[in-house]
Each structure stands twice: as structure tokens, then as C-alpha cells.
């Protein structure tokens, strides 16, 4: 017979979304089980970069940002057609004025420990195999195989799916991905290089695809880390006109023509290149149904503007936890359900119009010609124009507006119709 464990909330997956949700829930005094199939530390294919929006969420979680494992960035250095422009993160508004990098090998372990320290019951080596439902189709928990190979039932009135791009928990309940949302792919490789002593995240808008020579429908990056390594990668969106890009070949070709002094060669490579999918644009709407909340990549929360997903996973985790804390004060039934539907409504309020416009821009511009039109010579040489681009891509505007750039961007976004549920 299967073993059985109960909690108020079960979180499937201890990536940034799941660990942050578990930490917020535990801090609210809620009994939470955090189930993770791997054991920490473990790798996760990522660019390892956090914008100020993500840093803000780490501060809200109470993470120590003075730890030497972090590397701070003061902004972004954009490279295109032999030119470069430095844009610092905005120093006003509600976000910190710096970004961070840290390998996911360390970062995810740190966040999982943080959730545990807050009171979450973390079970690693525990692979969730199926959702459990009652006769009405409402989730009542999950089945899993634990580290010692035992089949176990974990029961709770609410489940959070934070199991990443595979979204197995949502799919197992029949919850499909919404059609027409952008689905990118990205690849990264680590190199040992001390060449990047500046404090910028580096982006390239003029990477050429291997084989075709066309502009990559995406961008390339080099993100310096605290341990004298760099995370080098590129990502792109497929389009019916050019089909899928040979990311491996494109990465090799691009890195080969970067300056030799940067040490981006086989001799300095640290491990192989690895790629993964980027589900973007909010792919499961509304994000709550029948006892199940979806957060992070399982809900396709990666920004269609820049391919960033950690900040969004952390922010949605906090909104989900707040929603649940309120809902659990109400008895099971319509009033509790009403409270749970606020999760999706709050996401709409914060991101709906931004994602709707981003989905259109990704489909009509980035997937066709990439980012080069956004960083033309005229834009690169205008500090105001390039700041507008950075703020738009990283959702770094302040609302209420703190300056003219915020005012313009906020006004544009208010004119966009809300995102459909
Ligand atoms: C190449 C690449 C570069 C990227 N670069 C950046 C970047 O620089 N900055 C940024 O913000 N975003 C970046 N992203 C996106 C970012 O990695 C994701 O958005 C982010 O990891 C989402 O977090 P998550 O917690 O939702 O999912 P994940 O990080 O995927 O975590 C899901 C967790 O669930 C666990 N899990 C899965 N199935 C089960 C199961 N059945 N049972 C138990 N546990 C399970 C997994 O083991 C994992 O720990 C990049 C993505 C890629 C592919």
C-alpha cells in the first residue's frame, strides 16, 4: 500500500518558482510540502542572469545579496554592427539599480534551502508521477516516487505546479498549452574567462544563423559570473519563413569570430553546450483551476520581450502564495474559489497588456528579423532611445512614472487591450 502524507499546499518542483512559492507560504504559516525530483545541487540550462525586477523579488524573499557567489551588473552593453552602447539600469522607481548573475547550480540550491529554513518540508529525489483528483475532477494531491523508491500519496486541498517547461502536472490534468504563444529555444555554454572585468551584461543583436547567414531571430549573450567564468549563449524564435535555427552551429560560428583574448575556445570551455525550450507569453490561462495553480515555466511565464523567466517565476510565486494565504482563511466552497481566482486577475493587472503587446512584437518582429531593428545606429547613439528600449525589454518602468520615459511607456501600455483569458 502507498504511504501517505498530508499538507495544506503541495508544490511540485523546486526551481525558482516552486522554492519561492514554498518560502512565501511557509512564512505565512502554511504547512507546505515541496517535492523535487532531483537532488541539489543540480544543473539547469539557463543564462543565469537576473534583471532588477528579479533582484527585487530576492530582496522580498530575504535572500542575502552580499554573499560572494553573486555578481552584480550595473546595466547592459549592447553590441551591434561593430558599435556598442552601455545602458545602466534605471536608478529610480521601485526596483534596485543593479542586476545579478549566479549559476543555477548554486542559485536553485540556495533558494530550496531558503524555503526549507522558512519551514517548507522539502523532499528531494521525489518524482511526482500523477495528480490525484476527486469525483468532481478537483485536485486532492499527487502521487510520487520518493528517494527510497516508495510510491507515496501526498494529499492537500491545493497544489501548485512549478515543474518547469515540461508542465507534466498541468498536462496530466488535461490542461493544454494555449495555441499561438511564442515558444523559443536557447543554448548556453560556460567558459573560463577573466576577460570581462566590466560590470555589464553583454547582448549581441547581430548574430548570424549558421547555414543561412540570416539574422538570428533572437540575440546572443555573454553574462560574466562571480567565479571567473562566463555564461555564453543565444536564443531564438522559430518562424515559418526560416524554420528552426541550428542553435549549436550558430553558437559555434558566433563564438569563433569573437576576440581571441576572450578565451571562448575549446581549451577554456567548461562542459558541453546545452539547450532547452522557452515557453513564453502566458500559455495557461487563467492560471488557476480546480485546486491547481500554475507558476513559472509551467504557465509559460517567460517574457516574450527578452526571454527572461526567473523574475517572472519569483513574482508569480509570491502572488500565488498571497492568494492562497487569503483563500485558506475561507472555508472550502465558492468564497474560497473566488479568492483563488484573484491569482490570475492579479497577473493580468501586472502583466496582461505588457505580455499581449510582447506576444505580437515577438511574432511580427523578433521571430522574423531578430532584435537588430531595435538597436539601429540612430537608437544606439541616443541615450534616451536606448534607455527606452532597455526599460521596455526588461519591464523596468516605474508606475507611477518617475520620468518622461516611464510616462511614455506606461501610456503606450495602457492603450493595449487586455490579454484574453
Ligand atoms: C538557455 C536558457 C537561458 C535562459 N536564460 C535566462 C536568464 O538569463 N534569465 C532568466 O531570467 N531566465 C532565463 N531562462 C529562463 C529560465 O531558465 C526559466 O524561466 C526558469 O528556470 C523558470 O523557473 P521554474 O521554477 O518555473 O522552472 P524550472 O527552473 O525548470 O524548475 C522546475 C523544477 O521542477 C522539477 N520537476 C520537474 N518535473 C518534476 C516532477 N515530475 N516531480 C518533481 N519535480 C519535478 C525540476 O527538476 C526543476 O527543479 C533561460 C532559459 C534557457 C533554456
Automatic annotation (TrEMBL):
Q: Name one Pfam family in it.
A: FAD_binding_3
Top-level lineage group: Bacteria
Stretches assigned to coiled coil: none
**What molecular functions are annotated in GO for this chain?**
FAD binding; oxidoreductase activity, acting on the CH-CH group of donors, NAD or NADP as acceptor
Q: Where is the FAD-binding domain?
A: 7-346
The identity of this protein, by name, is Geranylgeranyl reductase family protein
Report the source organism: Kitasatospora acidiphila
